[in-house]
Specification:
The protein is α/β, with parallel strands linked by helices and about 210 residues long. It has five helices and ten strands. The strands form two sheets. It has an eight-stranded mixed sheet with strand order 2-1-5-4-3-7-8-9, covered by helices on one side. It has a two-stranded antiparallel ribbon with strand order 6-10.
């Protein structure tokens, strides 16, 4: 029994770190995304229909606390800097239940956004309804949406790139490639890649 406990712990940690989950719901490639409205760190409500010039969005489900989210923070900021002027701005959504992760509270989100000078919305999904609707399971997890016939459809789901440690060492930049292909009028050649990060901390059932 003593040998079994460390093995069980290892398995549980592996599931958490890879963001694996048994649920099989949420948006799939090609699905239409329903509009949502969540509070930004500046107290304003943000929805997909707020900006008139956009061609799509880069949605980043993230958190203050996950080490992998922290590793990708600068890269998410760089995506917005590069693609917001071209019609694909970033929207970041804090995905964790704050009762299970107090350091992901709304006030902590505000502090993070202001200290890092985020140029994109950082939204508070208090009841996790938007996170569940997308089917996000880990932080960070990326969704690229493109606008077609006044409807937002999912074009990419998964990791930002293939190297957590370094943007410079990444040989595949999944999100960047997807947006570039959409801007060129081409279908996304790699529409999904497994997101590796911290499992989302869900609200406990009552």
């Amino acid at each position: 029994m003593k040998k079994f406990v460390p093995l069980l712990t290892t398995i549980v940690l592996s599931v958490i770190l890879t963001g694996m989950c048994l649920k099989d719901d949420g948006y799939k490639i090609g699905d239409e995304v329903q509009n949502f409205s969540l509070m930004n760190v500046n107290g304003e409500m943000v929805s997909l229909t707020d900006k008139q010039y956009v061609k799509g969005y880069i949605i980043a489900f993230t958190s203050n606390t996950c080490p992998v989210s922290k590793a990708y923070e600068n890269r998410i900021m760089a995506l917005n800097e590069k693609f917001e002027p071209r019609g694909y701005p970033v929207i970041a959504i804090q995905a964790n239940d704050v009762r299970n992760s107090p350091a992901d509270s709304y006030s902590a989100m505000q502090q993070k956004s202001y200290s890092r000078n985020y140029r994109f919305p950082y939204l508070y999904d208090e009841d996790q309804s938007v996170t569940r609707a997308f089917g996000a399971t880990s932080t960070p997890q990326m969704f690229v949406l493109h606008l077609r016939n006044n409807r937002y459809k999912v074009a990419y789901i998964g990791a930002l790139d293939n190297n957590q440690a370094s943007a410079f060492a990444a040989s595949q930049r999944y999100v960047e490639n997807a947006v570039n292909e959409l801007l060129a009028g081409r279908p996304v050649s790699l529409p999904s890649a497994r997101a590796v990060g911290c499992g989302i901390k869900w609200k406990k059932s009552v």
